[in-house]
Every structure is written in C-alpha cells, then in structure tokens.
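User: Before I run my own analysis I want an independent prediction to cross-check against. Here's the chain; please return only the structure tokens and, at the end, one sentence I can use as a sanity check.
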Amino acid sequence: MITTINKEYLVIENNMKKIIILQGPPACGKSTLARQLHAEDKTKVIVSRDNIRASRGDYWIPSQEKYISEIEEFSVVSALQNGLTPIIDATNLNPMTLAKWETVAELNDAEIEVVKLEIPKLAEALVRDMNRERPVGEKVLRNFYERYCPDYL
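Assistant: Structure tokens:
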C-alpha cells in the first residue's frame, strides 16, 4: 500500500520496514531532502540513480539504464534485508515505477511512503538546475514538466 504524505509530516516508526520514495521533477529538492533525512537518522540510506550512474565514470549511457535499474532495486532490497530504510532519490513520477516499488515492498513485507515535493514553476526549476552539480538542462526539464507537471509550466 502506498501512502502519500508531505515532507514536513514525515515520521518513520523504527520498528517497521519502510521504503521512502521521493517524488518530483528534477531540481525540486529531492536530493537535498534525502541528505537531510540521512543526516538525521543513519539507518536511512539514500539510493540514487544519479549516484549509481556517476559511479560508472560516464554519467549518461542510455544502453545501460536497465543495469542502473537493477542496481537500484538490489540496493533497496538489500537495505530492507539489513534493517535499513531506503530513501529512493529519483523523480518517481512514472506510474510504472511506483508499481515496481509497490511490488518490491510487498515482496519484502515493507510499507511505502511517497513524499511529494513541492513542484516549482519551470522557470524556477531552470534556475535551480543551473546551480546543480549535474544539471539536466532545459530540454529534459521541459520534457518532465510537459509530461508530468503541465500546470507548472
């Protein structure tokens, strides 16, 4: 079962297996929140597609996205099996992605909390993106907004 909550109400009970899914377009603060949650509680571990990609040396290799997905899923399952709470730091806007995480949670007897971050207007997201370590660029941002957040263009 997926529970949607706002980030300011995020409360995790230590005795429950849980997957925290951060959701929002690029440059809305998902990675910042993930780092904050980890800093507050070291049993929360960040699983980041961006970091997995970067660990290969070259960031964007489209032919290896299946590989990235497998490492991401393995990291989430391993965290759960070791008594940790994975924080999935990715856009997680695609319904198929959420369905995948719901299946992983069910198979591992875990709950899911979806943290929907406030969506900035596209103009603000473009400014934020320019100040990021790995900007995604206007084309990618515009595509995300047209597809998932058209009211914020």
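Sanity check: The CA atoms of residues 52 and 68 lie 7 Å apart.
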